[in-house]
Amino acid sequence: MAPCCRRLSEDLELSDVLQANKVTRRKPLVEKVTNAAFTCEKQKHVAFACDVNVNSEVPTVPPSHTTAAAGENQGHEIQKSSPRQEVKLISSHEDQQMDIDNLSSPFGSISISVPERVTDIDDHDDLFFSPEYAQDIIDYMQARENHYTLSENFLDDNPEVTSQMRSILVDWLIQVQSYEQLEDETAQLTVALVDQYLARAPVPLLRLQLLGITCVFIAAKYIERFPPLVENLCALTAGTYVAEEVLAMEHKVLKCLMFDVSMPLPNFFLARYFRVHLHDVKIKNLACYLIDLSLPSVHVVPVAPSLLAASALCLTRKLLLPQEAECWTPALAFYSKYSEKDLLQTVKLLAKILLRAPDSKYQGARSKHSDPSRLGVSMEPFLIGHPVLLQLTSENSQPSTSNSAMAAGGLEVYSTRSKRLNTACERTKGMCVEDTTVTPHRP
Fold first, then answer.
1. Is 175 exposed, middle or buried (0-12, 13-18, 19+ CB in 10 A)?
2. Which site from 30, 230, 257, 357 is most exposed, i.e. has the minimal number of CB atoms within 10 Å?
């Protein structure tokens, strides 16, 4: 017992010494963090106190608050004279120089207060929704959308993969997601990963399904709490590929994308839009169905995720709300930064896809949303030949009178916010076969 007690006492003495050294070493770091926090808080007060232009100079910190930090940095080559220099040292990619502490950065330039006629959806204390940072996160993700924008002809450099082959693969991936009971965000991230890789590297047709199942594996590991086993995913291909091939393909995909898998997704913005008004479950399920239904279409690829989410919600409100109700309110326009005129073309595209869904070859999304857990919205009879859909798909369709008046009379704040977002996007550029009803083979 004596040796054990002696060893324990020695450990306690050693821990006290280490703790004292730890406190000593952390003291300069605490001072630096305090100075940085003061700088950030000072700039926020200046930003809200006056209307600062994008090209305005960053307010400096009083000398009394920078003396300690300047004394510690003597003898170093790096001079921390502005927050922008710190970001350049931390960031290793030119496309991620977005400094939240610098008022001249896109992130700080697009934050404005909520107008009086719009309800503040962040005026609550629910920590799970991060009310202090929610709008800043949305602004940042919308500014990042430009880095992942692709054109409709992004498959031209892939001689063996056509838009029809991609649609077949995406439809099958939706069935895989439904079979494995994965999140909707996993399917959306999977499709985004597939498109980004196809736009950067040619893929033989015989390896296209391997790319799809590999992107499911990557997306599930990023989003799910318990991602599926790679062996189970290989079994869904009827043994066409083995685990070693999936892992090797995973290395290629991540290396090609530079491990950048944090992409803006439609459901990310849709969850934000749902909080603007009290939408019932049917509206939420139908909006999610429209997004899933659009994934196989190559015409939706150039549409930004935030625009796709807003258009899906707008079309859903047109279909389910009374005719006299506003389908796109000033509050939705403020938080989404899109007017109804901005959504019109994408709403028309979604209406065409929805009308053709019963006769389409790609039935993955329709089968998925026919489940009772999703209220069977894909099988609703009113979706067939709905007057709103027929009007939107006609040649001379125009927004309704009430909605046009709403857009003209209540969106001054929206236009200002949209201009600032466009400035932010400009500053952050430069990152940036026949049977399709195949059911995944059960393991």
1. buried
2. 30
